[in-house]
Specification:
alpha/beta; 6 helices; hydrolase activity; about 35% helix; Rossmann fold; 4-stranded parallel sheet; globular; hydrolase; Serine hydrolase RBBP9 isoform X4
């Protein structure tokens, strides 16, 4: 649906290293292959949300839209191996590099405690869309996200 917004380009590429989602692979890919810059709205789900936040620590972007974002490795070996959680979050740098931060989270997410999702929203002062029935947002339709992005682009509904 977002690929059909006139005057805008939507890139949706498969990320390399999809199981471990290593920061050392994903962040360079975002810069060199996806060309994320100050005109980019990065939409990240789960590990992609974490990558978007880490990317915004050191790069200026137009906006980040975080879906199922969290703050720790959750005791998971793959999450620990990803490298994203090896140092403290630089919340102020993210906010300074990214003027628009929107977050979608659901209290019934089977993988992420609501406490961590809420912490992201609080620390980033994100516009939070809180749901109680979306789980980990693995459904194929997500009209609210499309509406939010269109409003950022100032495209009629």
């Amino acid at each position: 649906m977002m690929t059909k917004i006139p005057g805008f380009q939507c890139l949706a590429k498969n990320m390399p290293d999809p199981i471990t989602a290593r920061e050392s692979i994903w962040l360079p890919f975002m810069e060199t292959e996806l060309h994320c810059d100050e005109e980019t709205i990065i939409i990240g789900h789960s590990s992609g949300a974490i990558a978007a936040m880490r990317y915004a620590e050191t790069h200026r972007v137009c906006a980040i839209v975080l879906v199922s974002a969290y703050t720790s490795d959750l005791g998971d070996d793959n999450e620990r191996a990803s490298g994203y959680f090896s140092r403290p979050w630089q919340w102020e740098k993210i906010k300074a590099n990214c003027p628009h931060i929107v977050q979608f989270g659901s209290t019934d997410d089977p993988f992420l405690p609501w406490k961590e999702q809420q912490e992201v929203a609080n620390r980033l002062e994100a516009k939070l869309y809180r749901f109680t029935d979306r789980g980990h947002f693995q459904n194929t339709e997500f009209h609210e996200l499309v509406s939010v992005v269109k409003s950022m682009l100032k495209v009629p509904g």
